[in-house]
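Handout, section 3.2

Students often ask what a structure token actually looks like in practice. Rather than define it abstractly, here is a full record for Ribulose bisphosphate carboxylase/oxygenase activase, chloroplastic. The first block is the sequence as you would receive it.
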Amino acid sequence: MECIIPLKSCTALNRTIPLVQLNLNGSNVGSTTSFPSKALFGKGVKKVASRGTEHSSREFKIVAAVDEEKQTSTDKWKGLAYDTSDDQQDITRGKGMVDTLFQAPIGSGTHHAIMSSYDYVSAGLRQFNYDNNMNGYYIAPAFMDKLVVHIAKNFMDLPNIKVPLILGIWGGKGQGKSFQCELVFAKMGINPIMMSAGELESGNAGEPAKLIRQRYREAADRIAKGKMCVLFINDLDAGAGRLGNTTQYTVNNQMVNATLMNIADNPTNVQLPGMYNQQENPRVPIIVTGNDFSTLYAPLIRDGRMEKFYWAPTREDRIGVCGGIFRSDNVPREDIVKLVDAFPGQSIDFFGAIRARVYDDEVRNWITSIGIENIGKRLVNSKDPPPTFEKPKMTLEKLLEYGNMLVREQENVKRVQLSDKYLKEAALGDANEDSMKNGTFYGKAAQQVHVPVPEGCTDPSAKNFDPTARSDDGSCVYN
């Protein structure tokens, strides 16, 4: 690495060290010149005087030698020259570890929190005081900052700046990615054009790719009419990714990835099939969510096309979201804090499920009052208004009780693998496996329950064939 510094500009630096006499244009310069100390360049700095016949600007070279053996644990930039990790997070770290159940972010697998979302925010950046509440719901400041800045940048003309068109928000299940996006959209007054992963596959080849272009052009038309709009795709990895070796990679998967790549490269020239005019359309930001972006096509998620944001809510975020969930139930904040701390590894949806469980008792009381046989008449096509309930009192003890019930149900799913048990112990138990190996179903099955098996000659072509024998004792006689 070489650094060229004009001699006259070195006096502006604060820290100075004396320089040896330099031979510039054949003459010695004996003055002391200001020069940055080794604290700027590291410990292995070599000063090399440049020699030549013409040096009108009096420049000299500073060569910084990288010597890893001389570096110590106190060096701030130790190992930086050999750092090959991604600038934001190493998504490929989860390759081949996709769990079919999409476990929570705490634990092994791709959903282990590589970094917290706040780790991407520099400590030197200013924290702006956003109003992060929408209709009583809490929006995480880091989430809101990332989404608002990305959308705003895509509507700006920044000089010589390559702004990625796609923002990929990924993380564990049930962390509120989609709902937080909807709250930010409502805060900004945006009515997004929405797509789901289920629309990215079709029986007709090319139909999902065409649908993406149509939705993009629809959002562009809304922008052209003076209304801000974005294209929002939910669970992109479930529709365009490969979750394990059993996922079939179809033509539509390939075309969806290729179409998103093409739109990201040419956001103002998105043409529909059969319409190849040169009409320029407005740029439309694309927001996608998912659980594991390592399952997507790698060129699609490169930094020039997609900006990645790993969302792992902090304790403060979880408390704020839960405050919005229980805002109409008059649950004290200290009880919400205790509830969140009691279930640290659970998703945010878990606390919404606890609130829904509390209303189960009210529903049971209503069913008892009208009778089970009258539920259909009362709820479907009824002249009577829908039933109303008084708000149940939600105490911390009741919330913890229902929370523990949900945790036990989750543990049952992980522990009791009934499909394996049924296949192993079906019909006559292990007799099925024995019959497949030896071909003697009846005899092996009888031996499992210790029933005596008559022995004799079991060969029909033998002279002393015994039709009642179930096991051959080697006594067959032949002519």
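Discussion prompt for tutorial groups: The chain has a mean pLDDT of 74. How would you have guessed this from the sequence alone?
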